[in-house]
Amino acid sequence: MTHDEVATACALRHGRSPTKLLQVLRDVQAALGHLGADAIDAVARALGLPRVRVEATATFYHLLHAESHGVYEILFSDNIIDHMQGKNELLEYMCERMWLAPERVSEDGLVYVGSTSDIGLGDQGPAALVNGAPLPLLDHNRLDLIAGLIRNQKPLSEWPPMLFEVATNIRRGDVLLAEPHAPGSSVARVLEIGPQGMLEDLERASPRGRGGAGFKTAVKWAACRAAPGSARYVICNADEGEPGTFKDRVLLQAHADLVFDGMTVAARVVGAAHGILYLRGEYLFLVDALEAVLQRRRDDGLLGNRILGEPGFDFDIGIELGAGAYICGEESALIESAEGKAGRPRNRPPFPVTCGYLGQPTVVDNVETFACTAKIAVRGGAWFAAIGTPESTGTKLLSVSGDCARPGVYEYPFGVSVRRVLADCGAKRPHAVQVGGPSGTCLSWREFDRRIAFEDVPTAGAFMVFGRERDMFEVARNFTHFFAHESCGFCTPCRVGTSLLSNHMDKLAAGKGSAHDLTQMQRLMHIMLTMSHCGLGHTAAKPVVETMEKFPETYERRLQALDYEPAFDVDGALETARQITGRDDAFAHVDEDRS
Amino acid sequence: MAERKLRVATTSLAGCFGCHMSLLDIDERLFDLVQVVEFDRSPLTDIKHCGPCDLGLIEGGVCNAENVHVLREFRENCRILVAVGACAITGGVPALRNNIDLWDCFREVYQYEAGTAKGVLPNDPELPLPFDKVRPIYEVVHVDYYLPGCPPSADVFWKFVTDLVAGREPTLDREMLRYD
């Protein structure tokens, strides 16, 4: 097939709609292997879009690439937890076995090995993706097996299924994970009490958004319901990109009906006919099972026209995939992405509840929030409000990983102490916990009596445990690299600031740090915090700020000089010229003791 | 006005002397300037080495070994060191060679280019050795202030120096902060 034929076929599959550009690009890349200039041209023709518009989207997402990544693309998850489990050593081992250089496709065009931001398997790492499919629990044995399969060019369908088995690892369940839920029961209930009754129940229950920001769900839904518009939309934010978080993956693996019930309840309340589950590209492996659940719900009359026989209650849910962009977890960037554009956050206000998807009133909520609302519909607001604390009602799912015996998902009523979680997961000599991922809060061992709740330590769900032998500087450095990689590039304080901060951290790591660097970093962090366009830039410096404050010794240990130290080996930078000219005289050197 | 004059040194490393020309553009204010300022090492005085100074103005980035020696001499002698202009601050135009391998640079200039003695790469010890990349000066020494612009306008120089002479923290208005 020619590029044009492939692009046209993919475009037709998505109704030739420009808003499906990202989905079309994903499909075209899956068919052609990569998105070269010809493929971009073909997509532009197939969708009737300007070429730059297609290229702007194609180049924005990490999982889309302009060069071939071979027949087998292996991307190792790059979170600090994977590093602690030996990611770098395994990546090198894989490259050696396959005679490869990292981040470059092999000479025979067969295989590519690289890294990617956390893929949501922190409880079963070190992990990687092969052509988008998950490879958890990697070790030398599994890599040997994989290397053999690749060398023999076995298609993924013939690989042993156990390589792809992703466990749910539910260690502690409460009202969401442990209680049975009859699919559709929430929808039936909202038909019984009506949208207004549901809103009143939500107000009583007073849940706050589980994605991290903690906005009151009742306020959001009521605002969307009241906003003028020709259509309304319900979007489930399953772009779980915060490193160390994987609870949404588990909810979708084990309790998808609960989530879809919640979305359908929201649709009834705000009057939406269309729902989108925006799933991060790294969770591609969930799509088939989720589509099957959606189809079953359609067959059971829980989606589609006249839901449960109710005239005028028409609602359906489509799955849209991301393609590797952390920033798309921000709701306005997610909407941009769902509209087929690069995922850059919009100016707010207007907020999505009045001007969201396609400019219409839109509810965007986290996977876990929808699960909570489904429960509230069935059990009532008063029941939910009695769980947790007055400020933070209900339960919270925590994705626990790192130095502990039992990593996995834990559900607790809000208000649980960090110490309790550490005891339950079997933490080994815990020294620090990163709650809420890199953009969250770093707690030292002195603060383990603090509580998981919006009024104390808020979290989107990550809970990374670091033992006494871990170096918190390296943790902050990993997070800083993460932010530099994930900055969308729209505003200068974030685009440049995250890179400069990374450079400073690398300079310190190379043993070339000085007190001057710390001063410079503090100035930089102030600019990022006050001048950035969105939350990514505001929080990107947080890991450094907090570890500097709580673990100053790990920075001081790395300082070479009190005033100033160059970032590079000044004399060494003359070595090429010395080789070219064959000189080694005194003037061919600039080290301070020699010259 | 202070009875002791402010002692100032200036130099151009990997620069084009455009920043120095812009300094001269303060025109008749030069007469006022020499009332309060005296020059140490500078293209204006032809003094070859820098003595203790209050202020060092550096134009241009670091492209070779000699630049490092000069820059360090300035840093050791100047209480306040200022990166003047785009090249000193970012590497500027000379840094355009940073994406070209140094071997390729030498070959292109001394071996492939018509009219050069074929195959002879210059290796006289009097010639400063080039670095593999052109660097902004802050990557080699501590820098206290930055005057952006290509070049910074005469008013920027004037404002900065008069602020210092008056004992004020030097600041530039928003309109003066130009990067072109």
What's the CATH architecture of the largest domain in chain A? 3-Layer(aba) Sandwich
Examine the coordinates and then state which fold CATH places here, giving the name of the CATH topology of the largest domain in chain A. Answer: Rossmann fold
Number of helices of chain B: 6
| Low-pLDDT segments of chain A | none
Radius of gyration of chain B: 18 Å
CATH architecture of chain B: 3-Layer(aba) Sandwich
What proportion of the residues of chain B form beta strands (DSSP E)? 15-25%
Count interface residues per chain for the largest interface.
Answer: A-B, 24 and 23 residues
Spatial separation of the terminal alpha carbons of chain A: 66 Å
What structural class do the secondary elements of chain A suggest? alpha/beta
Determine the N-to-C terminus distance of chain B: 34 Å
- CATH topology descriptor of chain B: Rossmann fold
Please give the oligomerization state of what you see. heterodimer
- Domain unit count of chain A: 6
| DSSP summary, beta strand count of chain B | 7
**Number of domain modules of chain B:** 1
Overall average residue pLDDT of chain B: 93
Helicity level of chain B? 25-40%
Topology:
The complex is a heterodimer of chains A (595) and B (180).
Chain A: H1 3-13, H2 21-32, H3 37-47, H4 51-58, E1 72-77, H5 80-84, H6 87-97, E2 111-116, E3 128-130, E4 133-135, H7 140-151, E5 170-172, H8 185-205, H9 217-226, E6 233-238, H10 247-254, H11 256-270, E7 274-279, H12 287-299, E8 316-321, H13 331-338, E9 362-366, H14 367-379, H15 381-385, E10 395-402, E11 408-413, H16 418-424, E12 430-435, E13 441-444, E14 462-467, H17 472-486, H18 492-509, E15 513-514, H19 515-531, H20 535-539, H21 542-550, H22 552-556, E16 559-561, H23 575-581
Parallel strand pairs in A: 1-2, 5-11, 6-7, 6-9, 7-8, 10-14, 15-16
Antiparallel strand pairs in A: 1-3, 3-4, 10-11, 12-13, 12-14
Helix pairs in contact in A: 1-2, 1-3, 2-3, 3-4, 6-7, 8-9, 8-11, 8-14, 10-11, 11-14, 17-18, 17-21, 18-19
Chain B: E1 6-12, H1 18-24, H2 29-36, E2 37-39, E3 53-59, E4 62-64, H3 65-77, E5 78-84, H4 85-90, H5 102-112, E6 130-135, E7 145-147, H6 154-165
